[in-house]
Write a structure and sequence with these properties.
This protein is α/β, with parallel strands linked by helices. Helices cover 21% and strands 33% of the residues.
């Protein structure tokens, strides 16, 4: 088998990560996007290794009864590849994947896995990041997403994961750039972000400093836009990295309320994408917070600790921009909280035997030094919210040496995608 060749296979199951697994006639595993268990499909191989291949389903000869037509027919694979299955089936698959993640690390959860899902399966995202594409046919730029499995781009008019107003704003900026005859090579990305009240902030990232500010006349129809920025980003840097802020207008800081607590955050900063589901997770966590001091690790702008952390909370975060916003939120909310700028593995002294520990790490999970510190100090309770059940299960398998699971709950933070959030509460034995 060679790259870009096509094979026919029967798909067996969906694995963690979101692909469907098939097996070739010679016993080689194929991980395919765009397929469902039980389907006979034709797969185009995008990556060929010695023992396995990755690919994308090109056609379905025998479809699953759970298959549906995706809402974003041309671009769903880039943003939300699980638009091909019913919402009910998606939730069942995610519960299965949580169970399998723990089995992989020879650990079982003490209760049946449940998954909280909000009824809103589309238009739930409050942030989107578009790239740009040069259309040779029309000789103008398009909004775009990267095609899964390649470095190519697919032109889009928007995405069903965000609100119509956010899509409208993105298209309006695209049209202004078209009228100015900008080319895709001059542009990097467009971030559009919305508050719960519908007010919008956007940032245009460019590869050139030779770009003028938007005029009030150009933006006169965007009545929901409260602020914007044009930002030069070094062409050698990843997308959406700030090198120099070129132009700014209005209020570019967003504000949202989480469990009756108001937060301000930068357009480029981290904040939860799906606030209603996030609030449910925080509500569940709050039940396990007592009178002990709370240490909140990996906390972004402080949205966990400052909502449920009680009267004394220490917030540790490695991103300096997030810590700046966190300090502003602490001062504005008049909270008894301390913000610490440090990588978590270098702030281990804050993990003490008297504290409740909250962790919400990135997909890689907890640093080994953090796990060792937890096992050495044995704080009475650990609250572990994770965006990756596989690494969470790996970490918890180690923590079970001195802890036991007293509660767990899954959350569908990102409907129509493979992403899963899982909360596990551990108490010291």
């Amino acid at each position: 088998m060679k790259k870009f060749s096509e094979i026919t296979t029967t798909l067996e199951k969906i694995v963690n990560g979101g692909q469907a697994l098939g097996t070739t006639d010679d016993g080689k595993k194929v991980f395919a996007w765009g397929g469902l268990p039980g389907e006979i499909v034709q797969v185009k191989l995008t990556n060929v290794k010695k023992s396995y291949s990755n690919g994308i389903v090109q056609s379905v000869m025998e479809p699953s009864r759970f298959r549906i037509t995706p809402r974003d027919k041309t671009s769903y694979m880039s943003t939300s590849p699980w638009q091909i299955m019913s919402y009910e089936y998606e939730q069942e698959i995610k519960k299965q994947l949580i169970v399998e993640a723990f089995k992989l690390h020879h650990t079982s959860l003490p209760h049946n896995v449940t998954l909280f899902s909000h009824p809103m399966q589309f238009e739930y995202r409050n942030k989107v990041e578009f790239s740009f594409y040069w259309n040779n046919e029309t000789q103008q730029i398009d909004l775009a997403f990267f095609q899964r499995g390649s470095h190519n781009k697919v032109p889009v008019e928007g995405t069903s994961l965000i609100t119509p107003d956010m899509n409208h704003t993105a298209r309006a900026i695209r049209d202004i750039l078209r009228s100015r005859k900008h080319e895709a090579r001059d542009l990097k990305t467009l971030i559009v972000r919305a508050e719960q009240n519908g007010k919008i902030v956007f940032q245009l990232y460019t590869k050139t400093k030779n770009i003028s500010a938007f005029t009030p006349r150009e933006l006169q129809h965007l009545t929901n836009v409260k602020g914007w920025e044009i930002i030069y980003s070094d062409p050698q840097s990843p997308a959406s990295i700030i090198t120099e802020r070129l132009h700014k207008s209005g209020d570019v800081v967003l504000q949202d309320t989480v469990l009756h607590t108001s937060f301000r955050y930068a357009c480029e900063g981290f904040f939860q994408i799906n606030i209603p589901v996030y609030e449910q997770a925080l509500t569940d966590m709050k039940r396990f917070v007592n009178d002990r001091p709370v240490i909140d690790l990996y906390n972004g702008v402080g949205s966990i600790g400052l909502t449920i952390g009680g009267d004394a909370v220490t917030l540790v975060e490695s991103n300096e921009h997030a810590v700046r916003e966190m300090k502003n939120n602490i001062a504005r909310l008049q909270k008894n909280a301390t913000a610490i700028l440090a990588s978590i593995e270098k702030a281990l002294e804050y993990i003490t035997q008297e504290s409740t520990i909250i962790v919400d790490p990135p997909r890689a999970g907890l640093h080994s030094a953090v796990i060792h510190r937890l096992l050495d100090t044995r704080p009475p309770r650990i609250m572990y919210l994770s965006c990756n059940p596989v690494t969470q299960a790996r970490d918890i398998a180690l923590l079970l040496e001195k802890y036991e699971i007293i509660y767990h709950q899954g959350y569908n933070f990102f409907p129509r995608t493979p992403h899963i959030e899982q909360l596990v509460i551990l108490d010291r034995r």
